[in-house]
Amino acid sequence: MLFKYIKICEINLCLPLQTIMQRYFIHLSYKGTAYHGWQTQKNTPNTVQQVLNEKFSIVLNEKIEITGCGRTDTGVHAKDFYAHFDCSQTDFMENQNKWLYKLNSVLPDDIVVFEIIKVYNKANSRFDAISRTYQYVITQTKNPFLIDTAFYCNSKFDLDAMNSAAKLLFTYSDFSCFSKSKTQTFTNNCKVTEAFWKNENNQLIFTITADRFLRNMVRAIVGTLLEVGSGKISVEDLKKIIESKNRSNAGMSVSACGLFLTKVTYPENYFN
Question: pTM for the full model?
Answer without folding.
Answer: 0.90
